[in-house]
User: Fold these one by one.
Assistant:
Number 1:
Amino acid sequence: MAKRFFIDASNLTGAGAVVVGMNLLRFLSAAGAADRFLYYLPDTPEFRALEVMPNCKTVFRRWPTGMANNFSRLFDLHLGLPLMVRRFSPDVCLTLGDIGPIRPGCKHVLFVHQAMLISTEADLSGMGSWSSYKRLYLTRHFAASLHRVSRIIVQTPVMAEHVAQKYHFDRNRISVIPQPIPEHVRSNAGRPLHPAIAGCAKPVRLLFLARYYSHKNHGILPAVLDELRKRGMQDSVHIFTTVEDGVASSTDFMKEMYRQKDLITNLGLLPMDEVAGALGASSALFLPTLSESYGLIYVEALSCGVPILTSDRDFARWMCKDLAHYFDPMNPVSIVDAIARITSQPVASYAARAGERLAELPRDWKELAEAFLAVLQEQ
């Protein structure tokens, strides 16, 4: 029997969330060809270009910036969005942006991929991407919405356990659906190597592939650079970052990079079609992150056969298993110890073992969309 599904993707803003939303939504309405869908999307060029099936209607929402965005989002969550859901009269509402309406008026499935919702202050070492007020409101709103959520979808068993324990949610009502290799990496695997990284003469070229979010832990870099100099490794190691230009909070970081430009280079925000070439030119992915719900970049690195240097945290251990060198992300000595070990990883066997790990994930986004649809149809 055909069903009606309301998909709220209007709050997808982070780089990883946009990748998930774009790829999932492209296949979801096709997987449910007999069903009807309404997609509520951010009014951005990426989502405007999204191709959907005839059984799917799209509605776009442009969000203001600054404080006006917060008030607009609150209005939408409490009034606008529930009204829109009721007008469409769906069988199930799927929220892709973690924070959805508390009373949607129908069965509600919540896709949770915001690590800030399950991270503690200890996890983040005081460097969370949310202010204290924002964290207080959003965690309480999230907890209140769970009383009317029929099922939660997460990407890893680690995330499932954190949600179940922190919010006392029934673990049996949490579905784990990992992500496949992103299309922008799979389709660009044969592209030329990134010239700036490939042209670096140093033998160890580390790619810190992350936007300038507090929990990504860019702030540890000055101490890491100092430790590299203490050990005389400045002629053998170079770090490449991908911090977007014009980020006000990164001004001091940019000054530090200029001061130590013999050890670190900022490439700016990388277009998606350059990610595979950047990874391919690197000796390793370097990610001292403090909190992740999944870590899509790990999948990207594994698919390119690139070794990984990352934080000794449960989310990284689940994804990377024995395919990474782990360190304490708040300890520059531990980090440089791991950097010193990176050349000991046999590249040939690493690529083969990385392929085995990736085979445990969904084959493609079509398979992932079918898994999401199965959850929706069960409600």
Note: The domain at 184-358 is CATH 3.40.50.2000 (Rossmann fold).
Number 2:
Amino acid sequence: MKNVFEIFEERGFIEQTTDPQLLREFLETSATCYIGFDPTANSFHVGSLLPIMALVHMQKAGHRPIAVIGGGTGLVGDPSGKTETRPILTREKIDQNAEALKKQLSRFISFDDDAAIMVNNADWLTRLNYIEFLRDIGRHFSVNRMLAAESYRVRLESGLNFIEFNYMLLQAYDYWHLFKTADCRLQMGGNDQWGNILAGADLIRRLEGDVVHALTFPLLTTSAGIKMGKTHKGAIWLDPVLTPPYDYYQFWINQADEDVERFLGLFTFLPMDEVQRLGKLQGADLRKAKQILAYETTKICHGEQAANEARQAAQELFGKGASVSAQSVPALELKRDEITRGFPAYILFEQAGLCKTRGEARRLLGQGGGYLNEERITDFDQLISLSDMKDGELLLRAGKKRYLKITVV
């Protein structure tokens, strides 16, 4: 079996590591690694997909992943990668989110027979005695070195409070705790966590005299410089209720040509020779590569049936003889009395979520970018009502590819 370090290298997962040769040798035998996850939402989004995929590769290679839900650090707030203070949640809300996140992770990695484990750092961090923590842990940290870390330097410009300043100590303590209780010797995370991960490795060296490892992933942006997972609708969630599989499929199929090969390597399990072959396609043929990217990513996240339905829906809507029958197309239910009274088109497009504001909807429709049942809407305030329904449905389209189906209850 190929060393997972080589898999990470060839697929583009590695931004920084501690000694690469030592880490490669360490991963020759079964090892335990961990990644921390933010518990401030009840669903992961696409921005979390890269570390999740890394855990999948680790497990496939025979290693044991630990997913750490930051319940304790969530009570403090991680300043890393943020220009403002994160919201602080209650313990009850964090615990609810943690349960939902574990359910989602179970679609990617197996927790059976402790092949992977999920823990909540609130279980140990909330029990710390402050004086003992300062004496036993805090004394190993240099304030000057902490302030030099990227995560703190960025926040110093907008204001870094004392609670957040403790975050590096708490994450370092996590690594030491997992080293002691689970023999965990590798922490992975986004590159904005590099300073925190090194702090943990240094703490273990000082307290235990042992060498442990660190690996960070690139902070992904698209070729247009947009943060991965951000769209006009907001975040792309892994929860099928928040982001339906059809929308998820469309997110991937609409990626820029320049990103297709990179994303195939990171977010699918296709062999790299196939990834490279698809990445070389040009023009109309590249559309096939995008379809494969969309199908494979949707299958991994939502299952084969959902991926098949999303692909079929896209083919129906974008192929000849477009149809509104596809079940995976995003849908909105309206009350019969509402649609009987009718909606001006720009209001319906805004309420349906195809435009963020009514002003945006007016501009879209005024420029001829709005469609009703595949016919262009000519007036932004055109009244849409029950009489416009075909086979009990309305099909709205914004631009070339954003569809929404409206039914009546």
Note: The longest strand covers residues 402-408.
Number 3:
Amino acid sequence: MPELKLLFLQMAVVLAAAKLLGAACRLIRQPEVVGEMAAGILLGPSLLGHVAPGVMNGIFPASGMGPLYALSQVGLVLFMFVVGLEVRPGELRKSARAVVVASQASIVAPFICGVVVALGVYGRLGSGAPRLPFALFLGAAMGITAFPVLARILADSGLMHTRVGQIALSCAAVDDVSAWCLLAVITVIARPHTSGGASGGALPLRFLGLGAYVAAMLFVVRPILRRVLPPSERPGPGRFAAVMILLLVSVWTTEALAVHALFGAFLAGVVMPGGGLLEAGLRERIESITVAMLLPLFFAYNGLRTSVTLLDSAELWALCGLVVVVAIGSKLLVSAVTIRASGMSWRESLAVGVLVNTRGLVELVILNVGLDLHILSPTLFSMMVIMALATTVMTSPLLDWIYPERLRSQAAVLS
């Protein structure tokens, strides 16, 4: 089958590029995911399509992207399940007041700034979507923190069990939960306009269905899972299959409710019993294939939708710079000031701000949702991808400068 042969070629090219650039990033103390994100962009029209359009169109023809897209979406569903699995609702409730305030500030400030920017650029960069979902979506996209990438940066830098690391991780968890709940609401609002589906009058029913589903997952499914899936036991083939069925049902349900499938995957991960051998076993089974193979396919698909060449004027590059500056200032500085008000030193506060400013892969996931729903134009999508890459690349160098190794070694280790 020609389609299958083409898919295997695409996968080989994508994985080779991702691993090569990932290894190169490790040499310069950058997370491997940065190289994989860059590989996806370089394989698209931003570089390969610019210097060798025949090669790009031969490997990634527009008519042959269906299988690659399907596999990338499977990878995203599994990835969002793992992200949800890492969220600890009980731990979030125990978080110190300073963490709760800082996390909400690091969501609210970027959201407001994103809405203001969206209203300002709507006439120039709008995609034809109504102004309200456009503004709300850009605000939500500005507030995201890449929880999984942040966790890896903390582990690599030795900050995981320090006060700075724990506060940053708690803030990121609250940020992601808040942002995905907000995204679910925005999707319900946007889909009737972008898909030609239900009328605006159906919105109350959509919200009612979404609320009922979330409540059922949290207060019915979650207690049942605690009884049938003991956290102290590794999942065998039968239990793993049952978890995957639950995941797929959750994904289908949120799609049926006009909420994006990825929210269903995230919620399925949140309600799973956390900690212990169960979580470790699920993570090992899923990440072994998702991180190694499926997510690089998503990066490639994302890169094929990103074209830096769309920014073909000084005005567009200035707007891109504005997006990057607003994203960094509203997230990094507001988080740092809020944490500083709780009594931490300026260096520690700025370190937390730098960490929660990491956008990474989760940002790309949300941006692709916006492009799929025709909320973002291709030009604004490319600007936001540049912002996601910039805020991820800057994390490690800034952290080394603001919070050097000598201070990390002196940090009190949390029990």
Note: Residues 2 and 159 are 49 Å apart (CA to CA).
Number 4:
Amino acid sequence: MKIGFDVSDLCTNRADGTTRYTMELAKRLPGIGSEHEWLYFAPFDFAHPSTVSSGSNGGKPWPANVRKVLSPWPKYWTQSRLPWDLYRYHPDVLFMPIQQIPFARPKKMKTVAVIHDLAFHIYPEQFTYKDWLLQHVFTAYVARNADKIIAVSQATANDIAKYYDRTENVHVVHHGVNHQVFRPVEERHPQLSAPYLLYVGQIQPRKNMIRLVQAFEILYQQEKNLQLVIAGSHGWLNTPIYRYIGVSLARSNIIQLGRVGDKLLPALYSHAEVFVLPSLYEGFGMPILEAMACGCPVVTSNISSMPEVAGEAGILVDPNSVESIAEGIQEARSRREELQEKGLQHARQFTWEKTVQQTGKVLF
């Protein structure tokens, strides 16, 4: 079988869940499907995912069953150049790790697409109009035309049924954790020493960061050496978030690190008092498991996919209540050792190897 795989996210410099998902699957799928030919379609050249995730500058050879198909026509690539290559190479199956499939494609080719979340239905005001419109058009087309859909959580599968009335050939496949990278470590982040709370993720409205800062302000009044560390970039509509941080009474104790690579992320997680993800909506919430795998207590929201991902190993709070978030953080700090052990055990249930095996069953 010839399997096409859109790996265009590997050409970006983003540090979001979809990019990590693509990276982890791209380096593992050919191993479990060694009898298949893999065509990795992309608009630019890209490094081997193992090289990227390790931070190494050295190249790593691709398996013999992987062939890169690079396009010299990157603009509007998914709907313009990718169809051209599909007709040229005729894969039997096309795997799209994003909420989009080409409108023009060979009729006999099967399509498998991944729907990560439907936040644009629930919080349309938190998207630019262009992004909101494109998300609607592309995701609706996937929901109605993809042969098979992978939903990254049962919560997302429920949303697909709710908004698109589709339940047939919708497969729930959870994300995993790279336990070789995300594990408790002794090393500390070189910029941090005082006790700190941690947020890792994009800077955007859906992440509910203004309420997180407000909850931190409550705790800061009681403990002046406590810090809030924000590790993230690449967002949208985030000017009000940065503006609020800039005028916060606790701004001197809010550390904005920007994007942090995998070399330092485990140290950030390992020594944080609590990891906090009070999102209003998540398709999955990968940092929840990364934090747990590093032995960090987790506080997250009691809605959407987050209870599904955190299980009984995290503290669930009402994301619309600043007081609930602050109380959840304090509870997590008081139960630190218990939650560390629960989190480590819970995270072990999620591996990329399991994700890849389940994805292979959908593809092959």
Note: The longest helix spans residues 129-145.
